[in-house]
Design brief:
- The complex is a heterodimer of chains A (about 120) and B (about 110).
- With about 120 residues, chain A is an all-beta fold.
- Chain A is built from no helices and eleven strands.
- In chain A, β4 and β5 form a beta hairpin.
- In chain B, the strands form two sheets. In chain B, strands 2, 4, 5, 6, 9, 10 and 11 form a seven-stranded mixed beta sheet that branches. In chain B, strands 1-3-8-7 form a four-stranded antiparallel beta sheet, with no helix packed on it.
- Chain B has about 110 residues and is mainly beta.
- Chain B contains no helices and eleven strands.
- Chain B is globular, with a radius of gyration of 13 Å.
- Chains A and B meet through β5 of A and β4, β5 and β10 of B.
């Protein structure tokens, strides 16, 4: 069974940094594309970033480009999101999501999410 | 960026009735369209991909149709567990984008 478990969320001040992690189990991690999707409180879904199965390629939403960095460690079955220069509008539940294959297209499997709150 | 719109924003339906949800793309996404269901406090769940293919384990009462810019999700006979928010998502072009959602509530 595919399991994704996010961690690392919390309260951070504007301009601060936070690193999210997603621990994967129950599948061959290195053969799945991975992504982060976020949801602001009471709002809809927003794709944030994606990384290819072997980690050589990454894509970002314009809203986070230059501030967030997605990475993966296939030896540790872990996906990460380094978030710098955080703003109030980055406040959201952050989900990691996955799909078999080189890239995510659809988001077939989801974690339970981790809440990031950016506030002074 | 491809903008996705959904209508209606809220749909009130009685259990056992049919629900029809619409999704429109600002430009053609071919059949690269997915639907998700989200219940309060839960992560979204993939229902439909390729505009009309049900994901693993999704009941046959869920069906999708359309291509290009106009898409529909139908739920043939609403069950109590189907009351939720439904999102469409295009994956034809980066950045992948979601619609704002349709909330299906109990009439």
């Amino acid at each position: 069974e595919v399991q994704l478990l996010e961690s690392g969320g919390g309260l951070v001040q504007p301009g601060g940094s936070l690193r999210l992690s997603c621990a994967a189990s129950g599948f061959s991690f290195s053969t799945f594309g991975m992504s982060w999707v976020r949801q602001a409180p009471g709002k809809g879904l927003e794709w944030v970033s994606a990384i290819s199965s072997v980690g050589g390629s990454t894509v970002y939403a314009d809203s986070v480009k230059g501030r967030f960095t997605i990475s993966r460690d296939n030896s540790k079955n872990t996906l990460s999101l380094q978030m710098n220069s955080l703003r109030a509008d980055d406040t959201a539940v952050y989900y990691c999501a996955s799909k078999p294959g080189t890239w995510v297209t659809t988001f077939d499997y989801w974690g339970q999410g981790t809440l990031v709150t950016v506030s002074s | 960026e491809i903008v996705m719109t959904q209508s209606p924003a809220t749909l009130s339906v009685s259990p056992g009735e049919r629900a029809t949800l619409s999704c429109r793309a600002s430009q053609s996404v071919s059949s690269n369209l997915a639907w998700y269901q989200q219940k309060p406090g839960q992560a979204p769940r993939l229902l439909i991909y390729g505009a009309s293919t049900r994901a693993t384990g999704i009941p046959a009462r869920f069906s999708g149709s359309g291509s290009g810019t106009e898409f529909t999700l139908s739920i043939s006979s609403l069950q109590s567990e189907d009351f939720a928010v439904y999102y469409c998502q295009q994956y034809n072009n980066w950045p992948f984008t979601f619609g704002p959602g349709t909330e299906v509530d109990i009439k």
